[in-house]
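== Sequence entry ==
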Amino acid sequence: MTFSTGIDIGGTKIAAAVYDDKGVVVAHKTVPTPAAYVELLDSCRKIIGEFDETCRQKASIGIGIAGMINRVRGEVLAPNIPCLKDHPFRDDLQKATGRSVHLANDADCAALAEAAEGAGRGYHTVFCLVMGTGAGGGLVIDGKIHQGPHGLAAEIGHLPLPFRDEKDGPMVECGCGQTGCIDKTISGPALGRLYRYITGISLSDKQHVLTSIEDDTDHGARVFDQFYTTVAKAMVTVIHTFDPDIIVVTGGLNKTPGLYDEVPKRWGKYALSKTLHTKFVPATLGSLTGVKGAALAGRNS
């Protein structure tokens, strides 16, 4: 039996799991994402070592990261994980573990998993929209991740929101250096800012932004109503660029109430075609979607 380790490195946490050759989880673990590069590298090394001991053999390694992957240099540009900047993360981790490491964008990993085993199974073109600490995208065509030579394909988070008006909320500087990016407009923190922008009230519990807004009977519906429109504008960028068969949503905001009914109703106002058949659905593989995709990418490589 062979095993595959998948690690999903996000802005706030590292989620990891090791799978057997039937795709069954053998062990899994979640730890906070360290702020320092050396600590991040060591956390990944320790997780891999623990899984190796559990499996009593070395597993393949796939790592999904919320950022752009330079496949030649093995470096990562991740605005929400700044400690990775200017470090050869892939090469350093390969030295630390003594084996090959495959890096991929976290949204690409989620798209691969959902295309292979989840909501996107059976579709030709699957776009995965990640809405969590940040916002980004991944693209799978005929079962294969499409990254492009610079790892920039489907990286919609760092495009400007189209058709923007003042109702979409405040213009915020992004970690990429630009202002008004989709990443800073439809992510979890962005929803919290939109709530403050509309109501004048700051959310005290930023970890549970959805629950807090749902519980606000005076303002919640109005905030969500505007958020649906803002997300619809962002999705027109996806549709006009890739025209996917299906958009699968993962991340902490993929349970936003009303999202899957309301966004498709609104994107026709901004799209060139008014008779779109693009499906817009939640991911079905749960919290380990990105982890499973990273493991698949590592195994396939």
